């Protein structure tokens, strides 16, 4: 028994050393990005947005579930997964809150195959780590979906997320649907689904979001959020991390736009989580701290009036 305890202690110490090394490398790389982008001068600027909030999310999520299932006999915690471990460090150090929007299946693996061994880990961290529906898989969307198809795929995915995490507190009810595509019929059906949506995250570019026309989508792109005739809240996605070399500078610019600076929604894709993306997330956390943005979930703010 003592030998097992010693092995577990060594694993824990090794894991902690790895995290400290990664944090140092990421900090240095984030600073390099800031210097290389010639925006260090704005770092000294400090503005406060007491009613505003910031949120970061990940699309196409499924690899973390494959990983914790593959290593369920070896991992003592979900945070031995590289992505989840990094996000925990960003939460502990900067207060970050994160959502991961999930595929149900990919490459012969589905959420129904995922272990539920780590449900307590997910529950204990539900205040800053949540999961939501994205799509059944990378090939499917709700672009032409009817109500029945939409509800079936949504509930099928959320049911497994509930099993894996063990709690409805882990479910984000303002997700981003794959390709920002959905019919009015399918979205309205999701309102009434089990653990159904309370809102949606809208496009970060000039495409038409969901069932909005071009004029409505352009208006939404220039504002924090709008509500449709059913009162469903659509939040604009402000920044796609893979499309920026200078996230800090871009966020400073957004923070100065009166129609866009109350809700800052940032995203990337789970499969892009590498050193560069982590450094950009680090820079996002620095921005939020310096500019007084509170981390929160859109699902907690759907009743607010941001106009």
Q: Structural class of the helices, strands and pairings?
A: alpha/beta
Helix-residue proportion: 40-55%
**In percent, how much strand structure appears in the residues?**
15-25%
* Mean pLDDT figure: 90
What labels describe this entry?
alpha/beta; about 300 residues; 10 helices; 3-stranded mixed β-sheet
Protein described:
This protein is of the alpha/beta class and 307 residues long. The chain has helices spanning 2-36, 40-43, 63-70, 82-94, 119-124, 147-165, 184-191, 214-221, 247-255, 275-290; strands at 53-61, 98-103, 105-106, 109-110, 129-135, 199-202, 225-227, 233-236, 239-240, 263-269, 294-295.
Blueprint of the fold:
Blueprint: H1 2-36, H2 40-43, E1 53-61, H3 63-70, H4 82-94, E2 98-103, E3 105-106, E4 109-110, H5 119-124, E5 129-135, H6 147-165, H7 184-191, E6 199-202, H8 214-221, E7 225-227, E8 233-236, E9 239-240, H9 247-255, E10 263-269, H10 275-290, E11 294-295
Parallel strand pairs: 1-2, 1-10, 1-11, 2-5, 6-8, 9-10
Antiparallel strand pairs: 3-4, 7-8
Task: Briefly summarize what is shown.
The chain has 307 residues and is an alpha/beta fold.
């Amino acid at each position: 028994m003592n030998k097992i305890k010693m092995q577990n202690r060594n694993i824990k110490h090794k894991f902690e050393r790895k995290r400290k090394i990664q944090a140092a490398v990421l900090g240095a790389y984030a600073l390099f990005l800031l210097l290389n982008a010639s925006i260090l001068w704005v770092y000294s600027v400090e503005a406060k947005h007491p009613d505003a909030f910031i949120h970061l999310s990940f699309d196409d999520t499924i690899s973390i579930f494959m990983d914790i299932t593959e290593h369920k006999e070896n991992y003592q915690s979900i945070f031995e997964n590289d992505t989840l471990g990094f996000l925990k460090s960003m939460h502990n150090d900067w207060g970050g809150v994160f959502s991961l929007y999930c595929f149900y299946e990919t490459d012969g693996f589905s959420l129904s195959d995922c272990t539920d061994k780590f449900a307590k880990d997910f529950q204990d961290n539900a205040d800053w780590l949540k999961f939501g529906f994205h799509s059944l898989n990378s090939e499917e969307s709700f672009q032409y979906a009817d109500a029945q198809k939409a509800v079936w795929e949504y509930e099928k995915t959320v049911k497994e997320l509930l099993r894996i995490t063990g709690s409805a507190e882990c479910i984000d009810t303002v997700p981003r649907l794959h390709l920002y595509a959905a019919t009015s019929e399918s979205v309205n059906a999701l309102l009434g689904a089990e653990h159904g949506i309370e809102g949606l995250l809208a496009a970060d570019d000039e495409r038409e979001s969901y069932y909005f026309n071009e004029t409505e989508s352009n208006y939404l792109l220039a504002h924090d959020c709008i509500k449709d005739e059913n009162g469903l809240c659509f939040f604009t996605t402000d920044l796609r991390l893979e499309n920026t070399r200078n996230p800090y500078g871009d966020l400073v610019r957004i923070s100065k736009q009166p129609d866009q600076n109350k809700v800052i929604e940032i995203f990337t894709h789970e499969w892009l989580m590498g050193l560069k993306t982590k450094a950009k997330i680090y820079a996002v956390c620095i921005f939020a701290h310096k500019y007084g943005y509170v981390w929160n979930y859109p699902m907690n703010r759907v009743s607010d009036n941001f106009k």
